[in-house]
Write a structure and sequence with these properties.
Its EC number is 3.5.1.88. By secondary structure, the protein is of the alpha+beta class. It is 20% helix and 24% strand. The strands form two sheets. It has a five-stranded antiparallel beta sheet. A three-stranded mixed beta sheet has the order 5-4-8, covered by helices on one side. The radius of gyration is 16 Å and the shape is globular. Bound molecules: zinc ion.
């Protein structure tokens, strides 16, 4: 068992930061069904996101708020991530996914006007990160069952950011290096809001 059991509380000390080579590696596929260790790690990762969005716990443990966390961001070379996103209606969407893959996407793209943030990156980065507006992802859930998930807008952006992590890609790799506010040409791209 790794230290990331379901009782373990991840803090910022556990989060791997920019410069660590594991963030630049393509992570390894996880065997299905997942082991008890894989499952506990995913539950631990999801709990970090919940804690980080809780006003009392985030203060107590000094957590930076996050909506997605990939396994390599806590030093595990495994293709899996957790995501926890509150929706406008107050309900939360939570995912613990294994071997996720984008199987189709829209041609239309979007971007967050303030750029993206990342728990592994401590400096502020400006620029537009073009993302597909809609994606369909195939993955396995924590029970080892195949799932197909359709996402759009903010949720689609979060998933693309996390799947990028599993391929060793960081969000700023997508920013135009000559002009960070230049958008790709000949593409239907509009801001998220
Ligand atoms: Zn990130």
């Amino acid at each position: 068992m790794s230290k990331f059991t379901k009782e373990y509380i991840i803090t910022m000390e556990d989060i791997v930061r920019e410069g660590d080579p594991i963030l630049r590696e393509k992570t390894k596929e996880v065997s299905i069904p997942p082991t008890e260790e894989d499952k506990e790690e995913l539950q631990c990762m999801l709990q970090y996101l919940k804690n980080s969005q809780d006003p009392i716990l985030s203060k107590k443990y000094q957590l930076r708020a996050g909506v997605g966390l990939s396994a390599n961001q806590i030093g595990l070379n495994k293709r899996m991530f957790a995501s926890y996103m509150r929706q406008e209606n107050g309900e939360a969407l939570e995912y613990m996914l294994i071997n996720p893959k984008i199987i189709s996407h829209s041609t239309a793209m979007t971007y967050i006007p303030e750029s993206e943030g990342c728990l592994s990156i401590d400096r502020s980065i400006v620029g537009y990160v073009p993302r597909y507006r809609r994606i369909t992802v195939r993955a396995y859930n924590i029970h080892g069952e195949e799932v197909k998930i359709k996402l759009k807008d903010y949720e689609a952006i979060v998933f693309q950011h996390e799947i990028d992590h599993l391929n060793g890609i960081l969000f700023y790799d997508h920013i135009n290096s000559k002009n960070p506010f230049e958008l790709p040409a000949n593409v239907d791209i509009t801001p998220l809001y």
